[in-house]
Amino acid sequence: MGSSTDNLKGFVLALLSSGFIGASFIIKKKGLRRAAAASGLRAGVGGYSYLLEPLWWTGMITMIVGEVANFVAYAFAPAVLVTPLGALSIIVSAVLAHFILQEKLHALGILGCVMCIAGSVVIVIHAPQERAITSVQEIWNMATQTAFLLYVASVIVIVFVLVFHFAPLHGNSNVLIFTGICSLMGSLSALDTFNTAIVSPIYYVMFTTLTIVASVIMFKDWDGQSLGSIISEICGFVVVLSGTILLHVTKDFDRNASRSLYAPLSPSLTTRLCSGNGEMLKHVVEDAAYPEDACLRRQGLY
């Protein structure tokens, strides 16, 4: 009964953590926008006026509160339960962004939210009980067991191979290189090279998976559970990950759609235009760049 109560406490703390962290993204973004409007210089291009913006600091404090709640949740519930629930912060930020920042949440994004919630429910229902830790010596014994030491050694070897062999050759062309290093060691350097919409879901998938694997090996979270419960947890986890990826993929939907309206001309069409009237080609290119003037310009041509 006590273990079930602890799991409930961990679950509630994980939910609160997701709420605070998800809301903090929106609050900080509002603060960044307000600071940029006041100073005329965005943080992304070297502006630091957001440091004087109370709204941004409110968002930062909100995030810290959420991270503390998430940290405490691990004291009551196993990582198999707490870690996947972090995906709910993405739902909170997506929904709040839809209503507060007017960032449209598309049908696939809504489906992603539903999948995250459904997967989380399955994980909560089948989550294992937290194993009671009675002494520091017990933690040391678990950390020095053969299986966990082999896992740590393999992580170190893989990171060294990725850093010194694959990163110099393929780091700028393969997103899995840097996100693999990030997930294994907790760094965030991949964001400097690849689009956030690509890095975030891959990082979440890899980091969450590796965290659960490490927890299962060290704390033996699945010991004593039936095969059906373990399979249910894995299925719920996969559903949460799929929903997370859907949410991230649909973030830049509008931007990508607008870009597709002005896609480059095909080579054959370009050849035909170049072989014809040069003046007409000039106007076609200008029309693509400034569509609002296209109709008036064409009327002048004809």
TrEMBL record:
What main location does UniProt list?
Answer: membrane
Name the protein family.
Belongs to the NIPA (TC 2.A.7) family.
Q: What lineage does the source organism belong to?
A: Eukaryota, Viridiplantae, Streptophyta, Embryophyta, Tracheophyta
Function summary: Acts as a Mg(2+) transporter. Can also transport other divalent cations such as Fe(2+), Sr(2+), Ba(2+), Mn(2+) and Co(2+) but to a much less extent than Mg(2+).
User: What keywords are assigned to this protein?
Assistant: Cell membrane, Endosome, Ion transport, Magnesium, Membrane, Transmembrane, Transmembrane helix, Transport
Q: Which GO terms describe its cellular component?
A: early endosome; plasma membrane
This chain's source organism reads Musa balbisiana
Q: Where are the transmembrane segments?
A: 7-27, 107-127, 148-167, 173-191, 198-218, 230-249
Subunit record text = Homodimer.
Extract the InterPro entries matched here: EmrE-like, Mg_trans_NIPA
Q: Write out the GO MF terms.
A: magnesium ion transmembrane transporter activity
Q: What is this protein called?
A: Probable magnesium transporter
| Keyword match Hydrolase | no
Q: Which Pfam families match?
A: Mg_trans_NIPA (PF05653)
Location within or outside the cell? Cell membrane; Early endosome; Membrane
The membrane topology term of the UniProt record is: Multi-pass membrane protein
